[in-house]
Design a protein that fits this description.
heterodimer, A: alpha/beta, ten-stranded mixed β-sheet, 24% helix, globular, B: alpha/beta, 8 helices, 21% helix
C-alpha cells in the first residue's frame, strides 16, 4: 500500500515557474525610510503614513512569538525587500494594456483575467508580488454600488471608508506579524457592499509572489453593510525558490446587521521541496467582526501549500444572534508544518458558531489544530459545536490538537469532538474487491473525509480543491 | 514586581530549610541537595506561563509559610470519623509528619508499608532506584520544593505476585495553620502484584495553610494498581500536588481523583506508559463552589505500542468558582496501535461559574485510535421538566440531576464507606442551594 501513497504524495508543484518580468524592487531592509518610501510611492495621505509609523513603532517593541507548534530558523527582517511591483507603473486603463507576460502567467495558472472569460463569471482582483495589477468587472459591480478594487485605489478614491474601517478589527498592535503588515502593507483587495445589496457574482483575489527575496504583505478589507451579502474567494501560488519567503497578510471582515460574508481560501503557496528546502512562511492574521445583529461570517479554507502555515481565521460575534463558521482542510506533506485553527469569541446573545477542521498529514509533516472558543459573560444562550479530525498517512508525521474552551456563561452550550485515524487496510481491501485500485480508493477516502468542508466551497473552487488534494497526496499511499 | 515577590517567596522557603542530613545515606542527601539547587534557579509560575494560564497563584506568593513542625497532639478518637472501616492498613501523617500512634499496619509479612526513614537503611537499593525518579523536579518548582524538604513519606512496596485485598489508607491530616507541609508518597508495585491505595487529604479546622504533595507510583510488569485520591481540605487551604506514574509492560493503573476542597488547588498527574500493552483508566471529579479554583492537569504519555488509556474528567462548578482542566495525550513515534479516549464534561450551575478546558492530543504515530471530546453546559431544561412532571420540585430535580452527573465517577470507587462519604459530600453541596 505504501508505494501507491508514496507516488500520490510526491507530485511536483506545478506553479513553480518564475515570470521574467521587470520589477521595481525596493532595497532590502526595514526602517522608517522604507515605510516612507512605500507610502510615497503609493501617494498616500498623511493619516495612512502615521498609521504605518505607529504600527512600526509598536512592532519594534514586540518580540516574535514562540508559542506555536512550528519550527523555523529566525527570520531576518532586514534581508527582505518590502516592495516589489511589476514595471511599468503607469495607470492601466483596460485589460489590454496589461503586460502580456503577466497575462500569460495568469493564463498558466488558470486565472480568468480577461473579461471575455465571462464564462467563469467571477470578478477577479490580481495581486502580483506586492501590487494589484488588474481588477475585472469593476464597472458592472459599480452599477449596483459595490466597490471592488485594490486597496491602494480605495485609499485614493474612498479614503473615508478606509480611514473608518482599516485596523478596526485587527488593531495595529494585535500581534507581531499584524503589526509588521500594518507598517509595510503594499496592496490588497478592498470590497464594499452597500446596504441591502446581494453581490451578483463571486468576488475573487488571486495572489502571486514572483520575486525572490521579497515578502508579500497584503491587506484585505471587506465591509458588508446592513442586509448585504458577498462571497469572496482567495487563491495563491508562488514560484519555486530555495530560500524561504515571508507572507504576512491581514484580512479584516466587517458585517453589519443581517449582513453575510463568506470568505473562501485555496492556499497553494510553494511548499518547499521534498527535503523541506524553500517554501513560503505563511503567517496570516484573518479576523471577522460580526458587528450587527443577525450577521454571519463564514470562513472556508483549503490549506495545501506553504512550508509553514500559521493562521487562525477568527470571528468576533458581537451582534446578537450572529453566526460564525469555520471550515478547514489542511494538508501537509514532506516537511511542511501547519498550525491553524480558529477563534470564536462569543459576545452577543444567542450567538452560534460551528467549527469543522480536517487535518491530513503525510511524509515528515506536522499539522496542528489550535482553536479557541470563548463564551463571554454577556453571551446568553451561546452555542458552539466543534469537530476536528486528523488523518495520518505514514508513521513519520504528526497530528496535534489544542482546543481551548473558555466558558463564562452557564446558559451556553459548547461541544467539542476530535478524532485521529488512518486509512485502514480493511477500507482499501473493501475498495479493491469492488475493483477500485488503491490510488483511487485513497483519493475517494480523503475526499469523503473532507466532504463537510468541500461542500462549503463555491463549485469551481471545490473542483479545484479536490484536484489539488489528490495531486498533493499522490504517491503517499501504496 | 511579581518576580521580586516570587523570588523572595522561594528564598524565604529555602531559608527555612533546616533538615539535618541523614548521614549514612549519601544518595538520599544528594537527591535533596539537587532539588534545592533546582529551586534556587527557578521562579514561581505566573499566569504568562502556558501551564498556569488560568490559575493565578499570586495569593500564594504572599504566604511564605514556614514548614510545619512535628507536634502531633491528636488522639485516635480525633480522627475516628476519618478512618475507613475497609482499610485494615492505615498510614497517618499529620502536617506531613508520620504519626505511628495513629497508624495501623496489620500486614507486616505481605508488604512493606510505613514511614520512609524507617526503611532507608534496610531497603536502600530499591528506594534509590525509585525515589525521585518519576516526579521530575527539573522544571517543576513545587516538586523540587517537596523533594528538597523530603523527610517523612508514606512508603509501600508490594512484593512480587502478591495481592493485597484490603485497600491501604494514606491519611494526610492538616492540623496547624499558616504552615507549609510537604506530604510525600512512594508506591512500588512489583511484578504481578495487585494493590489499592487511598490517598486522602483532610483538614481538621478552617485555617489557611499550604499542602505541597508529591506522589510517585511505579508499576512493574503485570502489576495492577488502583489509586483513589480524595482532596477534601478546607476552603481556605492551598493544595498543590504532583503525581507521577510509571507503567511497565502489561501493567494496569486505575485512578479516580475527587477534588472537593481548597481555595486554590492544582493537581498534576503524569502517567507514562513506558512499555508495551500497558493500560490506564483515569477518572476525575471536581466539585467546587463559592470562590474556589480547582485546576487539573493530566498528561498521558504513550511511549510504546499497544497501549490503552481512557480518561473521563467531570467538573461541577457553582457560585463564582473556576474549574480548569488540561488533558494532554501524547502518542510518541512508534507507539503504534495505541487506543486512547478522553472526555471532559463540565456542568455550570451558576451564571458566574467559569470553566476552562483544553483536551489536547499530540500524535506522532499513524496506526492509532485517538478521540477526545469536551462539553460545557448547564442542566437540560427538558430533563428538569420531566422530573417536575413526576412531582419533584424544581430544586429537587436539579439536585438529582447534578448528583447523577457526579455519581457516575464516584460510583467507580470500590470502597463502600468512602463512596458513601463522597456521595454525601455531593448531596450536601447540591442541597445547600435549596
Amino acid at each position: 500500500m505504501s508505494a501507491v501513497l508514496q507516488s500520490l504524495v510526491n507530485q511536483p508543484y506545478k506553479h513553480g515557474f518564475v515570470t521574467e518580468i521587470e520589477s521595481d524592487i525596493a532595497p532590502k531592509g526595514l526602517n522608517e525610510e522604507t515605510i516612507r518610501l512605500i507610502s510615497a510611492k503609493k501617494n498616500e495621505p498623511e493619516w495612512l503614513l502615521s498609521f504605518r509609523l505607529k504600527a512600526y513603532q509598536k512592532w519594534l517593541t514586540m518580540t516574535e512569538p514562540e508559542w506555536q507548534n512550528v519550527h523555523y530558523p529566525k527570520i531576518d527582517f532586514q534581508a527582505i525587500s518590502y516592495y516589489s511591483a511589476p514595471k511599468p507603473k503607469k495607470k492601466l486603463a483596460s485589460m489590454d494594456e496589461v503586460d502580456p507576460e503577466l497575462l500569460r502567467t495568469f493564463e498558466k495558472l488558470g486565472v480568468p483575467m480577461h473579461e471575455r472569460a465571462a464564462l467563469a463569471g467571477v470578478a477577479v482582483d490580481v495581486i502580483f508580488d506586492s501590487v494589484s495589477v488588474a481588477t475585472t468587472y469593476k464597472e458592472k459591480l459599480a452599477e449596483v454600488g459595490i466597490i471592488f478594487c485594490s486597496i491602494s485605489e480605495a485609499v485614493q478614491n474612498h479614503p473615508e471608508l478606509i480611514q473608518k474601517y482599516l485596523g478596526s478589527v485587527v488593531p495595529v498592535g494585535d500581534n507581531y506579524f499584524a503589526a509588521l503588515n500594518s507598517a509595510v502593507f503594499t496592496d490588497g483587495s478592498f470590497c464594499f457592499i452597500p446596504k441591502g445589496v446581494k453581490c451578483p457574482m463571486d468576488l475573487s483575489t488571486y495572489f502571486r509572489i514572483n520575486t525572490e527575496g521579497s515578502g508579500q504583505f497584503e491587506r484585505t478589507l471587506i465591509i458588508a453593510e446592513e442586509g448585504a451579502s458577498v462571497s469572496y474567494l482567495e487563491g495563491c501560488t508562488a514560484p519555486r525558490f530555495d530560500t524561504n519567503q515571508l507572507h504576512a497578510a491581514v484580512v479584516e471582515l466587517i458585517a453589519l446587521d443581517n449582513a453575510d460574508i463568506k470568505y473562501s481560501t485555496v492556499q497553494n503557496w510553494y511548499a518547499g521541496d521534498e527535503n523541506g528546502v524553500g517554501g513560503i512562511f505563511n503567517f496570516v492574521t484573518k479576523r471577522g467582526l460580526a458587528k450587527g445583529n443577525h450577521s454571519r461570517i463564514s470562513w472556508t479554507q483549503v490549506e495545501t501549500g506553504s512550508a509553514i502555515t500559521w493562521k487562525y481565521p477568527s470571528c468576533i460575534l458581537r451582534g446578537d444572534n450572529s453566526v460564525g463558521e469555520f471550515y478547514s482542510v489542511a494538508v501537509t506533506n514532506n516537511y511542511q508544518q501547519a498550525d491553524t485553527g480558529t477563534k470564536m469569541i462569543h459576545l452577543g446573545k444567542n450567538t452560534r458558531s460551528t467549527i469543522v477542521s480536517k487535518g491530513i498529514s503525510a511524509g515528515h509533516s506536522n499539522s496542528s489544530y489550535r482553536g479557541l472558543v470563548r463564551i463571554a459573560p454577556t453571551a446568553e444562550g451561546a452555542r458552539n459545536y466543534s469537530q476536528c479530525d486528523s488523518m495520518l498517512i505514514g508513521d513519520q508525521c504528526g497530528a496535534h490538537t489544542f482546543p481551548y474552551i473558555q466558558v463564562r456563561n452557564n446558559s451556553a452550550k459548547v461541544e467539542h469532538e476530535a478524532s485521529t485515524s488512518k486509512i485502514g487496510e480493511d477500507q482499501l481491501f473493501y475498495f479493491s474487491q469492488r475493483g477500485i485500485d488503491a490510488e483511487e480508493a485513497v483519493s475517494m477516502i480523503i475526499n469523503g473525509f473532507c466532504k463537510d468542508v468541500f461542500q462549503q466551497l463555491p463549485m469551481e473552487f471545490a473542483v479545484e480543491a479536490t484536484k489539488l488534494l489528490s495531486f498533493k497526496l499522490e504517491g503517499s499511499v501504496g | 514586581m511579581s518576580e521580586i515577590i516570587s523570588n523572595n517567596y522561594l528564598e524565604c522557603l529555602l531559608k527555612s530549610w533546616s533538615i539535618k542530613p541523614t548521614e549514612s545515606i549519601s544518595w538520599f542527601n544528594n537527591l535533596r541537595n539537587q532539588a534545592i539547587d533546582r529551586v534556587s534557579t527557578q521562579k514561581l509560575p505566573a499566569k504568562r506561563d502556558e501551564e498556569w494560564r488560568f490559575t493565578d497563584i499570586s495569593p500564594l506568593a504572599r504566604l511564605p509559610y514556614q514548614p510545619s513542625q512535628a507536634e502531633c497532639r491528636l488522639q485516635a478518637h480525633d480522627i475516628e470519623h476519618l478512618c475507613l472501616k475497609e482499610a485494615e492498613n492505615r498510614l497517618v501523617f499529620v502536617d506531613g509528619y508520620y504519626s505511628p500512634e495513629l497508624s495501623r499496619i496489620t500486614d507486616h509479612t505481605a508488604l512493606v508499608a510505613g514511614n520512609l526513614p524507617d526503611f532507608l537503611s534496610t531497603h536502600s537499593a530499591i528506594l534509590e532506584s525509585h525515589l525521585g525518579q518519576y516526579a521530575q523536579y527539573e522544571h517543576n518548582v513545587f516538586a523540587a520544593l517537596n523533594t528538597a524538604f523530603l523527610r517523612d513519606a508514606a512508603l509501600i512496596i508490594v512484593p512480587k505476585n502478591t495481592t493485597i485485598n484490603e485497600p491501604i489508607h494514606l491519611l494526610f491530616i492538616a492540623a496547624q495553620s499558616e504552615v507549609t507541609s510537604y506530604p510525600r508518597c512512594l508506591l512500588v508495585a512489583e511484578t504481578g502484584s495487585q494493590v489499592t491505595i487511598i490517598e486522602d487529604y483532610v483538614s481538621l479546622q478552617k485555617a489557611t495553610y499550604i499542602t505541597n504533595s508529591v506522589t510517585e507510583i511505579s508499576l512493574a510488569a503485570n502489576a495492577h494498581v488502583q489509586h483513589i485520591r480524595v482532596q477534601r481540605e478546607n476552603t481556605q487551604a492551598f493544595h498543590l500536588a504532583n503525581c507521577a506514574v510509571s507503567l511497565a509492560r502489561a501493567s494496569n493503573y486505575q485512578s479516580i481523583s475527587v477534588s472537593l476542597g481548597s481555595r486554590i488547588s492544582r493537581y498534576n498527574l503524569d502517567v507514562h506508559l513506558t512499555d508495551e500493552a500497558a493500560e490506564c483508566v483515569i477518572d476525575g471529579l471536581t466539585l467546587i463552589s463559592d470562590h474556589q479554583l480547582a485546576d487539573t492537569h493530566t498528561c498521558i504519555d504513550h511511549i510504546k505500542p499497544n497501549g490503552t488509556s481512557h480518561q473521563q474528567h467531570k467538573c461541577i462548578v457553582d457560585g463564582s468558582a473556576h474549574a480548569v482542566f488540561n488533558g494532554k495525550i501524547m502518542v510518541r513515534p512508534h507507539a503504534q496501535r495505541t487506543n486512547s479516549s478522553q472526555s471532559s464534561r463540565n456542568l455550570l450551575l451558576s451564571s458566574t461559574a467559569q470553566v476552562d478546558t483544553k483536551p489536547q492530543l499530540e500524535i506522532f504515530a499513524d496506526d492509532v485510535k485517538c478521540a477526545h471530546g469536551a462539553t460545557v453546559g448547564q442542566l437540560e431544561q427538558e430533563e428538569i421538566f420531566y422530573l417536575e412532571s413526576r412531582g419533584l420540585s424544581e430544586a429537587a430535580a436539579r439536585n438529582l440531576l447534578t448528583y447523577a452527573f457526579g455519581a457516575e465517577i464516584i460510583r467507580r470507587i470500590p470502597v463502600t464507606s468512602l463512596r458513601q462519604q463522597l456521595e454525601q459530600a455531593v448531596l450536601n453541596q447540591t442541597q445547600s442551594n435549596e
